[in-house]
Amino acid sequence: MQEAETVLAIDPSLRSTGYAVLHCAHQNISCIQFGTIRNTQALPLSGCLLSIRQKISQLIVEYSPTSFAIEAIIYVQSHRTAISMGAARGAAILSAAERGLPIYEYAPRKVKQAVVGRGSAAKHQVAFMIRARLGLTETPPEDAADAIAVGLSHFQARSAFLSLGKPHPSI
């Protein structure tokens, strides 16, 4: 029997980090909250990281998630982009680690595969499927939709591990 779980799911980015709080009880998944942490181009790296950490910490305090799920780094050709994405992930992961949450990571292609059925799905396809699957009245912004997809992938992976009688490995 699966216990109820609330996950804080993150699609990390320096300028536009998507987040979602989802709850799963008895195989029923509901989206409690979603949004985007926006940082302007004028904000330096340190300010962006602080903003991400503070908002995620605030979400953890407000919603008391039992787990934390984050999208793994995608392949990028620019080293600069990879470094800034890694820094944003680090700020997010630190917020969860400080509060002792188990942390899970999911590859972007696996997330799209779980939600849309194709690992190469476009962002608008992910957003459409999220809205349909959860019965949302509005289509979430792309980064928030990606975070919701990460959360759905987490619940799917958790269910698979439980059905196999194995622990769900965290990072």
Characterize the structure shown.
The chain has one domain: Nucleotidyltransferase, domain 5, CATH 3.30.420. The chain contains five helices and five strands; from the N terminus they run E-E-E-H-E-H-E-H-H-H. By secondary structure, it is an alpha/beta fold. The mean pLDDT is 94. Strand 2 and strand 3 form a beta hairpin. A five-stranded mixed sheet has the order 3-2-1-4-5, with helices on both faces. Helix 1 runs parallel beside helix 2 and helix 4 packs across helix 5. The chain is globular.
Kindly list the characteristics that best describe this protein.
171 residues, alpha/beta, Nucleotidyltransferase, domain 5, five-stranded mixed sheet, 5 helices, 5 strands
Condensed summary:
This protein is 48% helix and 22% strand. It is α/β, with parallel strands linked by helices.
Alpha-carbon Rg, integer: 15 Å
Main sheet summary:
5 strands, mixed
The low-pLDDT segments are none
CATH top level class name: Alpha Beta
End-to-end C-alpha gap: 24 Å
Counting helices, strands and paired strands, the structural category is alpha/beta
Count of discrete domains: 1
Number of DSSP strand runs: 5
Helix content: 40-55%
